[in-house]
Amino acid sequence: IILMLIGGSPGSTAGGMKTTTIAVLCASALAVFREKEQAHLFGRGIPIRAIRNGATVLLLYVVLSVAGAMLISGYEEIPILSALFETSSAIGTVGLSLGITPTLGILSRIILICLMFLGRVGGLTLVFAALHEKEISGFKYPEEKITVG
C-alpha cells in the first residue's frame, strides 16, 4: 500500500506521490535530525518550497486515501485494509485490485473514480489551480517560535 502511494519517478507515466517527493522529505528529516540549516541531496541544496510542496503532497495523498478507505469500508462493510488497498491503488493510478471493485456500490465506485482522477492530474496541481491567488501585499506576518514534535 505504501509503495502504491509513493508511485514511480517523475518523467515516467507512473502515478503516486513520486519517489523524488519521498527523497526530499527524507533529506529534510535528516537535516532536522542533524540540526542542519538546509536539506541537501547529492551536493545540492533543497529549496524550502520543495520541502513544503512535498509535505503537502504527502498529506494530501494520505488523507485522501485514508478518508476514501474509511468511507468505502463503512458504506460497503468490508475490511478497512481491503478498502485502503483499493483507494491507494486508485490514487496512485496503479491498476491493482483485490477483486472487490466489481462488487462495490455506485457511491464507492464514484469515490474510486474521483481518486483516480486526482491521482492522474496530481493533487498539488488541483490545489494550486483552485486556491492560487496572486500575492499583492508586500507585508509579512511576524514569526512565532512554535514547538513541534
Can you walk through the features of this model?
The protein has 149 residues and is mainly α. 58% of the residues lie in helices and 3% in strands. The chain has a single domain (2-131), classed as Helix Hairpins, CATH 1.10.287. The protein has 6 helices and 2 strands; from the N terminus they run H-H-E-E-H-H-H-H. A two-stranded antiparallel ribbon has the order 1-2. The radius of gyration is 18 Å and the shape is globular. The mean pLDDT is 88.
Brief overview, please?
This protein has 149 residues and is mostly helical. It has one domain (2-131): Helix Hairpins. It has helices at residues 2-6, 19-33, 48-76, 80-91, 106-121, 123-131; strands spanning 40-41, 44-45.
